[in-house]
Amino acid sequence: KIAHAMMQALLYEALDVYKSRYNFNITKRSRNEEIFYNFFTLVERDFKIDRSVLYYADKLCITPKHLSAVVKAVSGHTAGDWIDKYVVLAAKVMLRSSSYTIQEISSDLNFSNQSFFGKYFKQHVGMSPSDFRLQDV
Q1: Rounded Cα–Cα distance for residues 92 and 104 (Å)
Q2: pLDDT for residue 46
Q3: How many whole angstroms separate alpha carbon 114 and alpha carbon 107?
Q4: Cα(68)–Cα(80) distance, rounded to whole angstroms?
Q5: What is the pTM (predicted TM-score) of this model?
Q6: What are the respective helix, strand and coil percentages of the chain, to the nearest 5?
Q7: Which 3-state string (H, E, C) describes 6-35?
Q8: How far is it, in rounded angstroms, from Cα 54 to Cα 74?
């Protein structure tokens, strides 16, 4: 429940960034706005399944290049950045608020092995998952 709440908070944060940059009217979204909204909804649902821009572009029936350009234009961040932010946030929440082992978290987030998860996490956070877990809040 905590992880899901954190993911929703990230979604709301992204939409707030979007709203602060553009006039947001739910009834009248441009095509790019619609693509961004649908992309973010898919990321929220499928971030544990796949972390590639290609996966989300295929789901939206557009090219990865077009998806990346649209997401960057609408939000100021790349599609890959949004996917990574979602995965890292989920990992952080699970590391801090659960008794799952790092191996279990790695598996739950669909990493091929714990080593790859550790490298991914360290690249994005600057420390290993075990160091993050031990860090004072």
Answers
A1: 13
A2: 94
A3: 8
A4: 8
A5: 0.77
A6: 75, 0, 25
A7: HHHHHHHHHHHHHHHHCCCCCCCCCHHHHH
A8: 19
110 contacts 48 by C-beta, under 8 angstroms: yes
DSSP, res 120: H
Residue 57 — very low, low, confident or very high, per pLDDT cuts 50/70/90? very high
Q: How far apart are CA 6 and CA 89, in angstroms?
A: 7
Q: Is the separation of the CB atoms in 46 and 7 below 8 Å? A: no
Of 83, 58, 56, 79, nearest to 69 (Cα)?
A: 79
Two structure tokens written together for 64? 């990865």
Backbone angles phi, psi at 65, to 5 degrees: -65, -45
Answer whether 125's CB lies under 8 Å from 132's CB.
Answer: yes
Rounded CA-CA distance 1/78 in Å is 28
> Which tokens belong to 82?
């949004």
Quote the Cα angle for 100-102-108, to 5°: 70
